[in-house]
Amino acid sequence: MTQEKSEPFFKRFSIQLVLPIVSVGLAIAIDQILPRAIEQKTVAHPYFTYLLGITLLGYVGMIIVGKLRYAQWYATANYIAPFYAGVTLFLNVLNIVTAKYAILPVLYFPAIDRVLSVLVNDAAYLATCVVYSYRLLFMGWFLGALVGISTGIMLGFSKAADYWIWPFIRTIGPIPSTAWIPLVLVAFPSVVSGSVFLIALAVWFPTTVLTNSGIANIKNSYFEVASTLGAGRWYQIFKIGVPAAMPSIFQGLFNGTCASFITLVTAEMLGAKYGLGWYINWQKEMMAYSNVYAGLILIAASFCLILTGLFKFRNYILVWQKGVIKW
C-alpha cells in the first residue's frame, strides 16, 4: 500500500486526464477576462462559461466515481479525454473569433453564448417544435422501415416479385423523395400525411435494396440443409433468411435514417406551423442566425441520439457478431 501511494501521480492516473481540465480552464479564463466585441450583442448570463463548467463537473465526477467504484467510468473518461479537450479548444478558438474580436461577419456567425441563450430562453417553444418533428419522423420512419423490409423480403424470396417489382424500384427509387413534393401537395389532404409519406419514401428505398441484397448473399446451402431437415417455406424465410440478412437490413435502416432527417427538414417547409425544419427556415428568413444554429444543434443532437439507440438495438439483435467482425 505504501509503495502504491508513493508512486508518481502520472503512474496512478493517466496524464491525458488532465488535458480537458487545462483546456476548459483556459476557455473559461479567456471568456471572463477578454472584453466582448462591441459588434456582438450581449446576453444576460455567461452561458458559455456555464456550459464549460457543467461539462467539467460531469467529467471530474466521472473520474472520481470511476476511481472509487466503477472502473469502467474511469476507462471511459480516459478514452474521451483527448476528444473532450480538442472540442473545448475548438470552441475556445471559435469564441475568440466571434465573441471577442468579431473577425467573422457578426450576422452569420453569432457568439456561442447567444446561441446558448436561445436554447435556454426559447426552450418551451423549441420543445414544441421537437415534439412535432419527432411525431412526423417516427411515423414516417416506422412506415418506411416496415414497408421497406417487407418489400426486400418479397423481392428476395419471390421470383415473380423480383421480375415485376424490381424494375419499378430501380426506376423510381433513386429519385430524391423531396422531388415528389409537387405531387404530394396535390395528392395528400394534409401537410402531416404528405410529410409522413415523404419521410417513409426516403427510408423505404435503401431499406428495400439492402434487405434484398442481404437475402441474395445468403449461402444457398443454409436453405438446402433446412429443406432436407423438413423446414417449410415460411420457416426458411423467417428463421433463416431474415436473421442472416439482419446486418444488411440494419445498414439499410441506418442509411434510411440519414435520408429521413434530410427529408424532414424539407417536408416541414410545406406549410407546417411547428417543427425544427420549419423553425430553422423561419428564423433564416428573419435573419436570426443564432436561432438557426440553435435549431441545427437540436437536429444534430436528435440524430445522434436516434442513431445511438439504433446501434444499441443492432448490437442487441446481432450479439452473435461480436468478436466475429469488427464493429
Examine the secondary-structure arrangement and name the CATH architecture of the largest domain.
Orthogonal Bundle
Intertermini distance = 40 Å
Uncertain runs are 1-12
- CATH superfamily descriptor of the largest domain: MetI-like
Mean pLDDT comes to: 87
Task: Report the portion of residues in β strands.
Answer: under 5%
Number of helices: 15
Cα radius of gyration in angstroms: 26 Å
What profile does the largest beta sheet have?
Answer: none
Helix-strand makeup class: mainly alpha
Q: Specify the oligomeric state.
A: single chain
Assign a percent range to the helix content: over 70%
Query: Class of the largest domain, according to the CATH hierarchy?
Result: Mainly Alpha
Reading the helices and strands in chain order gives HHHHHHHHHHHHHHH
Number of strands: 0
